[in-house]
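Work Package 3 (structural annotation) set out to generate three-dimensional models for the target panel prioritized at the project kickoff. During this period the team completed the workflow that converts sequence records into discrete structure tokens, so that structures can be stored uniformly alongside our sequence database. As a representative example, we reproduce one entry of 111 residues exactly as it appears in the project archive.
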Amino acid sequence: LNGTILTFTSLPPSIEKTKLTDGKKVGKKVKLSATFEDPTPAAVYLATIDWGDGTVTSGEVELKLNHEVAQVTVKKEDHVYGAPGDYTVTLTLQADGRTLVVAMGTVEVRS
């Protein structure tokens, strides 16, 4: 490889599936789950969920390797809202100190 420069680029994870329940009433559980694929697997993934009402929680993460691609699943997490309104829910996936994916959705909570 005389005179050839090789550059390796890390590809970002892709969102495969997200699910956020909507139309719930105050005091009822709103559920969130998500699945991502990461072509450059990390040893540890962290998921953080900002529920849009001042509550931030950690999501339970399951990791599987499939042909050297990480399949990362954020298990069904839930939250109960105390007031009606439209809330923006933000899911952040991190690995090795880097933010890999941010997914956002809106949930409507009725009285």
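The two ends are 67 Å apart (CA to CA).
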